[in-house]
Amino acid sequence: MAGTGPLLPCVMPDSASSHRPRMPLAVYILGLSVFALGTSEFMLSGLLPPIADDMDVSIPQAGLLISAFAIGMVVGAPLLAVATLRLPRRTTLIALISVFGLGQVAGALAPTYEVLFVSRVVSALACAGFWAVGAAVAIAMVPLNTRARAMAVMIGGLSIANVLGVPLGAFLGEHFGWRSAFWAVGAASAVALVGVATRIPRIPLPEKKPQLRQEMAIYRDRQVWLAIVITALAAGGVFCAFSYLAPLLTDVAGLSSGWVPWVLALFGLGALVGTTIGGRVADAHLFGVLLSGISASTVFLVALALFASSQIAVVGLAFLLGLSAFFTAPALNARMFNVAGAAPTLAGATTTAAFNLGNTSGPWLGGAVIDADFGFRATAWAGAAMTVVGLAAVGVALRLGGGGRPSRRVAGAGSTSPAEAGAPAGVTRTAS
Fold this sequence. Notes:
Structural class: mainly alpha
Shape: globular
């Protein structure tokens, strides 16, 4: 299908244009796709009991399905980014969203826990690849000064998944069985597939094919590693507490279990508001968003630890944590593309892996403090400790000269400009 459909112009609008450029429809299609991906990734938090009962496994064993997805994302993002480096972007997106959708069907039909586990890993690999390639496509379609806004649209799909998709999955699981939630995500994936196939433009291959060794050179840049650390700690700190929000609400705050989906939806609503605001200001004030957003998450996590027994405080802080975490997310994405702009595919893959390192390490740390008998309240203290270290990493990045220049390691490796490397130079040229 790479040879059909509209052709993306090789020259993007001038980033210095006096008027605000319109976001391409294709970016919103990517956001719709991310809605399906995000719903699948997070909906299991509300489906573990019925899955455990149906598959005759324990709750912790069912919980491994969540860990499997996160680890699949960490591993799959860079691997699939490398494997698809020389493939047409739209064709790659079509293949990945198709595999993801089939993974949901396999999960819905899974006769055993082992089959369901494998379906989650396969879905995670496809999800990771779609995130990585989709991010590169979104960045390639917009001017330099709207990168964070484009990423905010994609992340907005994840926010809406938390607001609507996850509670809807819990509702379907409660009334029609957990398999119905997988069927629903499969249907959403089919809609996304149609959108990708018909609305994502055919992005021309660069004059010079991307070189793997050249793209891999970004990992010799310390600013890239700092961006990975900042992203993992910012995400992990919030999800250290968020992953155990349900038992904190019921066992510490004393709310009934019926409140849990609504509070989760409130977190998602905060995430949607945060993404919208962060995406609009991060392009002009990237480090300001990083510092203020991660600082706010730290304050809210400390407040959650101190006031966990207050029902009103916990409900309000769930909204504020969603807001602060996703307010920071567009800047975290844009930062990686700024420091590794000459390797856009691996930049997207690395960002995806970094977020999921946080989504894996945060819940692990939260589980560790709970197993050490510090209680559910302690997950917020542990999360705050992660975000404090993340703030320190932002300070180091600034001290080392945290400008938005692409990695010199890549830009100077075998070519005289990012454009010659097949990457956007100020996003005036598209990636393959």
